[in-house]
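Quick one from the shared queue. A colleague (R.T.) flagged Biogenesis of lysosome-related organelles complex 1 subunit 4 as missing a structural entry in our internal table.

Convert sequence to structure tokens.
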Amino acid sequence: SIFILQIESLDKSLEDLLTRVDEFVGMLDMIRSDSSQVVNESIPQIYTKATEMRHIYRKIDKLEAFVKMIGNSVAGLEERVIKAETDLGAFPSTFKKILHTISIPSFLNKSSSSRQQQTLYEPPVLFKTEDYFPCLNEAPH
């Protein structure tokens, strides 16, 4: 009878062991299927997203260069405005408007001709936004 009890105990242990092996095999199958899903689905999606992000990074680099170029252009214009103000003197805006609307008398014009030659206005070279954003040339849909 002790021998029968040992056989039953051994049989139960073997059943538990087989159950654990089945669970382990099920886990391995699940890991295998998850791995194949990662390899077949997730990695191509990640690669596609990475390619899109590289495209976006290039756009950001171009935008940074564009902003830097505009900053330099604005700084140059600001220097020209400051120089023009120092060359012409800082008149109040009402005097500036009056001077623009009336013509200068001829005797003042002769005396200031040398000064006008020194401060001859040259329009600055400005960029066109359409050169950098071609979509602005397109007609709206």
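Residues 106-117 have pLDDT under 50 and may be disordered.
Residues 2-96 form one domain.
Added to the table.
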